[in-house]
Amino acid sequence: MKALYATAFKSILTKEINRFTRIWVQTLVPPAISMTLYFLIFGNLVGKRIGEMGGVSYMEFIAPGLIMMSVITASYSNVASSFFSAKFQRNLEELIVAPVPHYVIIAGYVGGGVARGLCVGTIVTLVALCFVDISIQHVGLVAITVLLTAVLFALGGLINAIFAKSYDDISIVPTFVLTPLTYLGGVFYSLSLLPDFWQGVSQLNPVVYMINVFRYGFLGYADMSIPLSIAVMVGFCVSLWAVAYYLISRGIGLRS
Question: 3-class SS at 89?
């Protein structure tokens, strides 16, 4: 039985990876172009006027945040579009009634989102190396953070796809929720620059904790407690996994 589950997981994961690698020009190249523009405009042109931030050059400061931003977008969009497509084309119903636990289905789709997130993150890191020297001070923290972040937003994309009724619904959450959270998550600035009130408000943003740990892994600079940030990420991952499992096990929103 375990072999059957492993085969099912591998099949879903392979399908998801083949899906975004087959159209790599649309899935992997655009993030590299976007991040190149970010580095040119914010890092190079604006950064020269800002000077240092967090004890390093502005270009070095924003590099981890831009990498994390690309991972968030890629992992989220991959699962949201793929799962909704399966639901819209009625392929999902066959998968749901198959003798495979729901957690295997979730793991397969989330694994595909994580794979795309890691691929895009690697590409953006290579782009960043063209503009700034990047050194990793805490490799373990960087690996844990990027993995938890990719899992978290892949689960978010899955939940979005479950509730979506049309392809237009797929873009609502990224536009009105994901983008504001990311831009207000400390990618381009240190939280220490904010007034006390807005620092408190920022602590309600989960993206702040992800970028905080990721930046600390690269630069050794953090605005918030590292153990707290990791705990928040793990808590969100567990919560979203539970929500996704509940929705799929109850068949909620699985009909397009």
Answer: coil
How many CB atoms neighbour CB 37 within 10 A? Answer: 9
Residue with tokens 């009909």: 255
CA 89 to chain centre: 26
DSSP category for residue 99: S
Neighbour-count burial of 145, counting CB atoms closer than 10 A to its CB (0-12 exposed, 13-18 middle, 19+ buried): buried
Decide if 230 contacts 222 (C-beta within 8 A).
no
The CA distance from 242 to 256, in Å, is: 22
The per-residue DSSP string of 168-236 comes to HHHHHHIIIIIHHHHHTTTSSS-GGGS-HHHHHHHTT-HHHHHHHHHHHHHHS--SS-HHHHHHHHHHH
Question: Cα–Cα distances in Å, from 249 out to 107, 119, 244, 252, 254?
Answer: 14, 30, 8, 8, 10
The enclosing H or E element of 57 equals: strand 56-57
DSSP 32-56: HHHHHHHIIIIIIIIHHHH-EETTE
197 has pLDDT over 60: yes
User: What φ, ψ does residue 156 adopt, rounded to 5°?
Assistant: -60, -40
> The pTM is what?
0.92
pLDDT averaged over the chain? 89
Closest residue by Cα to residue 216 from 114, 73, 39, 68: 68
Both tokens assigned to 233:
């990420």
